[in-house]
Amino acid sequence: MKKIAIIAIFVVALAVGGFLGFIITGFATAGSTQSSFSYYYEPSSPSPIEELLVNADIGGVEIQYNTSNTPYYAQIDVSIAVSGLFMSGKTYLDFFTPYTEWWDNSSSPSFNMEVKPDVWFDPSHWFKSYNIDIKITLRTDIIYDIVAHVLTGSLIMYIPENVILNRTLLRTTTGEVLLNSTSNTNFQGNLKVQTTTGKASIISKETNFTRGLNCGTTTGSMILDFDNCLMGDNITGMVTTGSITYNTNNLTFSKHSSIVLQTTTGSIIGNINQFKELGANITGNFEVTTGSIDLVYVNDKFSVGTKFSGTVTTGSINYVYSDLEFNRINGILTSGNYAVALYKYTFTLSTVTGNIDLDAESHHL
Fold this sequence. Notes:
Blueprint: H1 2-28, E1 31-41, E2 50-65, E3 74-84, E4 103-104, E5 110-113, E6 129-138, E7 144-159, E8 164-174, E9 177-181, E10 185-187, E11 191-205, E12 207-209, E13 213-227, E14 230-231, E15 235-241, E16 244-249, E17 252-253, E18 257-265, E19 268-274, E20 282-290, E21 293-299, E22 304-314, E23 317-320, E24 326-329, E25 332-335, E26 343-353, E27 356-362
Parallel strand pairs: 2-5, 2-6, 2-7, 7-8, 7-9, 8-10, 8-11, 9-11, 10-12, 11-13, 12-14, 13-15, 13-16, 14-17, 15-18, 16-19, 18-20, 19-21, 20-26, 21-27, 22-26, 23-27
Antiparallel strand pairs: 1-3, 3-6, 4-5, 22-25, 24-25
C-alpha cells in the first residue's frame, strides 16, 4: 500500500508540474499578431449598376460612403489583431487564409475573408481572441447592388444623403446587423436585413423604399424606425424569439400595401404618428404567440380612417380612446371617419397568450 501511495503521489506531482509548466509557458509566449491590408476596385468597363459581394467569417464590417472625391468604386480596409497565449512566432496566416485569396475581381467584385479551422494540437488556437475590423468605402455617385454576409460579428451600413441603391442584402449569422439611411436615399431594388442570432435594425429618415423591405431575426430583437419615409411595397418583420419595436412618423405609401410583424415568443411595441396623407390603403397584421402587443396610434388627418381588430386567447384587451373619435364593438375599434376616409389603416392585433394594450387618437372632426 505504501508503494502504491508513493506512485500515486509521483503521478500527481508530474501532472501538476506539467500543467503549471504548460500555463507558465503559455503566459511567457503570450502576445498578439497584427496585420492590415487594403483593396481597391475600379472597373475597366463600368456598369450602370455595380455589384459588390462581401463575405467574412468573423469581424465587424462597416459599409460607408466617401466624404471626398475618390477614383475607386470601392475601397476595403482590413485590420486584424489576434491575441492570446502561445502566440510567439505566430502570424495571421496561422489563423486565416492568405489575404491574396480574399479578393476576386474575375467576374463580380467579391471579398471573401476566410478563417482557417482550429488546430486541436496547437494551444494558440485554444486561447485566442480576435479583433477584426473591415471598413468598406463606396462612392456616392455610383449605384450598387450589395450582398454582404458576416458569419460571426457585426454588419453596419451607413448611407448619407442623396444616394441611390439597387438590391441590398445585409445578413449576419451571429451578431448585429444595422442599416441607417438619411435624407433622399432611394432603394430601387429589394432590401433585406436579417440575422440568425442577434439584433436586426433598420433606422431611416426621408428614405424611399421602392420595393418595400424584409427584416428578421431568429433569436434576438428587431427595430424598425421610419421618419417621413415613402414605402413602395410591403413591410415584413419576422422574429422567432425576441421583441419587435416599430416606430413610424408620417410614413406614406405609393400603393396599397401590408405591414406584417410577427414574433413567436416576445412582444411588439409600436408608435405610429400620422400627420401626413397616407397615400394608399394599408393592412397591418401584428401577431404574437406568447407575449404582448403595446401600441400607441395618433392620426391627425381626416382623410385617414383607422380600424383595429384585437383577439386574445389567454389575456386581456385594453383600449384607451375618446368616444368622440372611435366606436368600439367588442374587440373592434373603428374611427368615426373610417367609412368615408380616402385612405384606410386596417390593423389586426392578435396574441395567444398575453395582453393587447392600445392607446389611440384620431382627430378626424
